[in-house]
Amino acid sequence: MKVTLEELRAFLDEQFPQGAAFGSLQKLGDGWAEMKLAVDEEHLRPGGTVSGPAMMGLADVTVYAALLTRIGLVPLAVTTNLNISFLRKPVAHRPIWARAKMLKVGRTLGVGEVFVYSEGAEEPVAHSTMTYSIPPER
C-alpha cells in the first residue's frame, strides 16, 4: 500500500476539498477503501430517497481513494467512465456507505467496483464500476 489513511485524508482535504461533500474516508487497505456519507435534506429526492448524484459522488470518491492506495497521491487521476446500477431504495435520513476495490491497475488505467449500502441494511442499494485515467509519471 502506497499511502496511509491519515496521508490520504490530508491529501483529499488539500487537493479535493469539495470531496468532503461526498463523504468521509473511514477505512483503507491495499486496493480498497470505505467511505461514509451522512445523509441530510440536501441529499434527498422527492419520495424520501437518497439522490442518484449523492450515491454516484460517494462511489466515485471511494474508488479514487482505493486507486490511490495502489498508485500513490496522484491528484490528476480522473474518472473516464462510470456505470452505476441503482438496486433498491436507500433509507432516508440514514447514512450510506461505500466499499470499493480495484479490479485492475495498469500503467494508464485503473478499473474498480464499488457497492453502496444504506446503514443497517445487508443488501446493497447501488453497484458501480468505473475506470480512472492515470497520468504518466514525469
Automatic annotation (TrEMBL):
Domain Thioesterase: 47-122
Alphabetical list of SUPFAM superfamilies matching this protein: Thioesterase/thiol ester dehydrase-isomerase
Keyword Iron: no
Keyword field: Hydrolase
Source organism, top-level taxon: Bacteria
Keyword Hydrolase attached: yes
EC category name: hydrolase
EC number: 3.1.2.-
CDD domains: PaaI_thioesterase
Record-level Gene Ontology MF annotations: hydrolase activity
Gene3D superfamilies membership: Hotdog Thioesterase
PANTHER family recorded: ACYL-COENZYME A THIOESTERASE 13, THIOESTERASE SUPERFAMILY MEMBER-RELATED
Family membership: Belongs to the thioesterase PaaI family.
Protein name as catalogued: PaaI family thioesterase
Organism: Marinobacter suaedae
Lineage: Bacteria, Pseudomonadati, Pseudomonadota, Gammaproteobacteria, Pseudomonadales
